[in-house]
UniProtKB/TrEMBL annotation:
<feature type="transmembrane region" description="Helical">
    <location>
        <begin position="12"/>
        <end position="34"/>
    </location>
</feature>
<keyword id="KW-0812">Transmembrane</keyword>
<feature type="transmembrane region" description="Helical">
    <location>
        <begin position="127"/>
        <end position="159"/>
    </location>
</feature>
<feature type="transmembrane region" description="Helical">
    <location>
        <begin position="190"/>
        <end position="209"/>
    </location>
</feature>
<dbReference type="GO" id="GO:0005886">
    <property type="term" value="C:plasma membrane"/>
</dbReference>
<dbReference type="Pfam" id="PF01925">
    <property type="entry name" value="TauE"/>
</dbReference>
<comment type="similarity">
    <text>Belongs to the 4-toluene sulfonate uptake permease (TSUP) (TC 2.A.102) family.</text>
</comment>
<feature type="transmembrane region" description="Helical">
    <location>
        <begin position="165"/>
        <end position="183"/>
    </location>
</feature>
<keyword id="KW-0472">Membrane</keyword>
<keyword id="KW-1003">Cell membrane</keyword>
<keyword id="KW-1133">Transmembrane helix</keyword>
<dbReference type="InterPro" id="IPR002781">
    <property type="entry name" value="TM_pro_TauE-like"/>
</dbReference>
<feature type="transmembrane region" description="Helical">
    <location>
        <begin position="221"/>
        <end position="239"/>
    </location>
</feature>
<dbReference type="InterPro" id="IPR051598">
    <property type="entry name" value="TSUP/Inactive_protease-like"/>
</dbReference>
<protein>
    <recommendedName>
        <fullName>Probable membrane transporter protein</fullName>
    </recommendedName>
</protein>
<feature type="transmembrane region" description="Helical">
    <location>
        <begin position="40"/>
        <end position="59"/>
    </location>
</feature>
<feature type="transmembrane region" description="Helical">
    <location>
        <begin position="94"/>
        <end position="115"/>
    </location>
</feature>
Length: 242
């Protein structure tokens, strides 16, 4: 029952913020007694469910960025395939420290970026997008997040995407990275299938309502909500780690 509740909460966060859900699910699982590597495994499987369903619901509004999203996603898939090896060869503590550093980067970058862009993003070099996706895929899948926690601030802060559009693209990216992470960590014997399925199926309910609420939220308020979420998660991770 606890895992199902976590799934609904994570799904809502995933749909509303355009994230895989790992950034909220991993701290919740750590607080409930799972170790970092177990939390990463459950989170990765949950993201497969939430990202596919969420991207389907976002499809009509986000279709103009799916071209870039596919290129970044392919890079993320290749990078995500490396995550099982990394998780198997580093400590739980190292993964938690990495998670905290990424949260700090995301908070700073989004804070200094505008909530909306007046101009449309320029066409980007495909190789650069592929490389960005590759490295995000490696890092994100190793700490149990989909990658949008890193991708969104990069898209908004450096590539000039609108914040809501960036989160839609970020959730689309999670499809590629999470499937790769699932395959990689399954091959390494790290996956918790039953727990991941419970959380993943329950998350579909939350995703639906999260996207509905997102579409009704103003851009300036949306930015504040994203910053607030990241700060709360950062405090939780600092408490659990130190």
């Amino acid at each position: 029952m606890e895992l199902a509740i976590f799934g609904v909460i994570t799904g809502f966060i995933s749909g509303f913020f355009g994230v895989g859900g790992g950034m909220i699910l991993v701290p919740l699982l750590l607080m409930s007694g799972f170790v970092m590597k177990e939390a990463v495994a459950i989170s990765v499987m949950q993201m497969v469910f939430s990202s596919i369903y969420g991207s389907f619901l976002n499809a009509q509004k986000a279709k103009e960025v799916l071209k870039d999203g596919t290129i970044i996603g392919i890079g993320g898939f290749i990078g995500g395939l490396q995550s099982g090896f990394i998780v198997s060869n580093v400590s739980n503590e190292f993964l938690q420290y990495l998670f905290i550093l990424i949260l700090v980067f995301s908070i700073v970058r989004i804070f200094y970026s505008p909530a909306s862009q007046e101009a449309q993003p320029k066409s980007q070099n495909r190789f650069i997008l592929l490389i960005i996706g590759f490295f995000i895929g490696i890092v994100a899948m190793s700490i149990g997040v989909g990658g949008s926690i890193l991708l969104t601030p990069i898209l908004v802060g450096f590539l000039r995407y609108d914040l809501k559009m960036a989160t839609a693209l970020g959730l689309f990216f999670v499809i590629f990275s999470s499937i790769a992470g699932f395959i990689s960590q399954s091959l390494q014997g790290l996956m918790l299938y039953q727990e991941g399925a419970i959380v993943g199926i329950a998350s579909l309910i939350g995703v639906y309502f999260g996207i509905k609420v997102k579409n009704l939220t103003k851009a300036t308020s949306y930015k504040k909500f994203i910053l607030l979420l990241n700060i709360i998660i950062l405090i939780t991770m600092l408490y659990k780690t130190f």
